[in-house]
Design goal:
Elements: H1 3-30, E1 35-36, E2 46-52, E3 56-62, E4 67-76, H2 77-88, H3 100-103, E5 106-111, E6 118-123, E7 128-137, H4 138-154
Antiparallel strand pairs: 1-2, 2-3, 3-4, 4-7, 5-6, 6-7
């Protein structure tokens, strides 16, 4: 490779590393229980995870394209419902014609045509459910995580 191209690529890599570190800090600030996984468990080199008595457990990974995958389980239904309504608005999810907290147990999904992200909420019959999301931008994931944190503080 030409020396200028090598230099430009190295500059890009340094900047990308900085962006990823900032993304990790941002995501952890929005959802404090998240900690860096000792060994990545998804396909991504950057995996954050948590295990919390009141918030269940879960994993989040940041891929090499700056997209986030979230897989949280055993979250209280009320926390999930309040957070999703705050982050997305009422009746955004397929199958939810009203606030998620009023919909009852079931699986609700939303595919964002703008970003290509997809979301799934499962409100369980035992008052705990799960939240999964794929291909979410860091800013959008941060909003969702902050909404989950805020909803959890109210409970």
């Amino acid at each position: 490779m030409q020396p200028d191209v090598v230099t430009a690529l190295n500059d890009w890599e340094l900047e990308w590393d900085r962006v990823q570190k900032t993304a990790i800090k941002t995501l952890q600030t929005a959802f404090i229980p998240l900690a860096r996984a000792k060994t990545p468990t998804y396909c991504c080199a950057i995996t954050l995870e948590y295990d919390h008595a009141d918030l269940g457990s879960g994993k989040l990974c940041l891929d090499d394209h700056g997209r986030v995958t979230i897989d949280f389980g055993d979250l209280p239904n009320g926390v999930i419902a309040e957070a999703m309504d705050a982050a997305f608005g009422i009746a955004r999810f397929n199958g939810a014609e009203k606030a998620l907290g009023e919909c009852g147990p079931g699986t609700y999904s939303y595919d964002c045509e703008t970003t290509g992200a997809d979301f799934e909420v499962v409100l369980g019959t035992a008052e705990v459910g799960k939240f999964c999301a794929n291909f979410v931008t860091v800013p959008d994931a941060t909003v969702i995580l902050d909404c989950l944190s805020t909803a959890a503080k109210r409970r």
